[in-house]
Amino acid sequence: MKNKIKIVIPAAGEGRRLKPHTHTTPKPLLSVAGKPIIGHIMERIKDLNPQEVIIIIGPNGSPIEKYLKENYSLNFQFVIQEDPKGLGDAVYRAKPYFSGEPCLIILGDTIIDMPLENLLKEENWIGVKKVEDPKRFGIVEIRNGTITKIVEKPTEPKSNLAIVGIYYIFESPTLFKALEKIIKEDVKTKGEYQLSDALELMIEEGIALRAQTVEYWLDCGTPEALIQTNRYLLQNNNYFKPRPDALIRPPVYIHDTAIIENSIVGPFVSISEDVEIRNSIIKDSIINQGAYIENSLLEHSILGENSIVKEKPLHLNLGSFSIFETS
Known about the structure:
By secondary structure, this protein is α/β, with parallel strands linked by helices. It is built from six helices and 27 strands.
């Protein structure tokens, strides 16, 4: 059955909470632990041998298509969501590529670190995890492991089981039928067609959805979450070549082309290609391609591509081509 599965990855979101970085880079291509977010997702699905991987991209999503085609040999289909109307709308646009195959949906800004192959059986499930603040998420209510209700960002949550951005629908025709119904009847929540509303409709029609616990859910939706995910992934993705004039404290990811002189780097730092770092101390940060850092102390920071930092800031969230200097 694994060869028949099709995977849908909605990747058209604007990434408002990750600005200024998403002004110049689509959210799924933001780097974390030495690789774009969507690259980490691909590493976790490529061994499933999917029949097709359908990527929903926005009007400016061509860099996503280019990256995936250049780095992975999966059978990709790219669908442009010209006028995004919600996650339900994004998934529904994959309908023409299905003729009854099981559907695995993974959100393009979420890395799920769990073995999937043994979970793709003849059943439907939604990935969930207990959270401290369920008001921020879509949540599920369950009875004996089966989902009885789905609520999108409830004001008074009756459960702390958050939906984490991975869904497996063995009976995919029922999903697309439910999506079609909410779109035709213009059923919106918070102004958008929600996938959760279609799943709730499936439950009301008697289709069983199981709650699948996800232990490692790596959110990439905010700068703080991106740095936290970077920490987690570097523990299994430590890579660097020693530099004679630098002290490297693992875990880190340092691209071979990066120049580091008279500096201390790490722990939990990702450094992309063509970065230059001189006379600086950097920890717990993500430094993107072409950035230049001199005489600085950086912690809990994200620097966009080709940004320049000089003189002692402590915490920065700079977009591409930004310049920060104190003199």
